[in-house]
Every structure is written in C-alpha cells, then in structure tokens.
Amino acid sequence: MELKTTAAAVVDTLAAHGIDTVYGVPGVHNDPLFDALHGARGRVRMLHARHEQTGAYMALGAALATGRPQAYAAVPGPGMLNTAAALLTAWGMEAPVLALAGQIPSHAIDRGYGHLHEVPDQLGLLRHLTKHADRITGPHDASARIADALCLAMSGRRRPVALECAIDVWGRTGPAPIVGPIP
Distance of alpha carbon 27 from its chain centroid, rounded? Predict the structure, then answer.
C-alpha cells in the first residue's frame, strides 16, 4: 500500500468522490492540506476566499447549484466559527456541504493550554451545526472518514457534515487506503 500524508489521502478521496474544488482561506493549521491541494493539480483545485464565511457560502452555493457535495476548509476556533452561518444555512436548505476544520496539536485538544485558535470542544460545537462531525486521526482513517461523512451528507435528508484534523496530523505519513463512494 502506498504511503501518503493524511492531507494527500483527504485530497485523493475528495477527487474519488467527484469533488473538484475546495473553498476557503489558507491558514497555518491547514498548511499540509493546502500543499496537498497544490500537488493535486488538475484533480482538485483550491478557490481562495477573502473570509472563512465566504468560503463556506461558496461551497453552499456550489452544492445547491450542482446537487453534489462540496467542501470548504477553515482554520480552527474563530475560523470555523466564522463559517457557522453557512453551515446552518446548508442545514436549512438541505445542502451536502463538507466542512474541513483545522485543529490545534492533537496532544493539546480540549486541554486549555491557550493555543492559537483554540476553542473548547470544537468537535462538540460542530456536532450541533451538522448532521455528522468526526475527527481524522491519521492517514489510516482519513479516507474512510471522508467517504463516511459524504455518504451521510447525501443520505436521507441532505445536510452538512464536518471533519476536523489536528495541525500535526495533516502532515503525518502512513498507509492510506483510499475509499471510493459508498452507495
């Protein structure tokens, strides 16, 4: 099995599911994700917004226009909270939007150390705003978590979903089986 970074596994899985654009604002917490998007030339592109809320609304608009899932990325804490209005609008409009939320270092999550953009229980907040929210823990589960989230976004009443990934996990390398679309 090919070794990949968590970010590369995420990008490859988005491409396998027909997502060709990720909207958002780059930030240090997601640098490896943006590196992987740059490396995916021609398969998945990045459309830069000037604000996190705009990036999330761009994904919402694309989901409504195409009927297909769309994705955006935001840094943790204030960045992700800036997208809350778009997530709630996606909920009300039954739009399949995937939020890719950055996160502080994995060893510090929910410990209150005062990291840049730290917010208590970000995953819990996302669970209140989406149909499903989970955490990517490494390249070994990145693709399966993306596939599962997209399946849930499209099943039953379409709704937004969210996945968070810690700054130190995006760049972690390991076996990364790519999971195709789940019926």
Answer: 13
For residue 56, which of 74, 39, 69 has the smallest C-alpha distance?
74
Total number of residues shown for the chain: 183
| Distant-in-sequence, close-in-space partners of 155: CB < 8 Å, separation ≥ 6 | none
Beta-sheet strands, E only, within the chain:
3-5, 21-24, 45-48, 70-74, 97-103, 132-136, 161-166, 173-175
* Cβ 83 vs Cβ 49: under 8 Å: no
* 151-180 pLDDT tens trace: 999 999 999 999 999 999 999 999 999 999
pLDDT digit string, tens, across residues 103-134: 999 999 999 999 999 999 999 999 999 999 99
Is 5 in contact with 169 (CB distance < 8 Å)? no
Tokens linked to 122: 């970000």
- Write the pLDDT tens digit of every residue in 30-74: 999 999 999 998 899 999 999 999 999 999 999 999 999 999 999
The Cα–Cα gap between 161 and 83 comes to 13
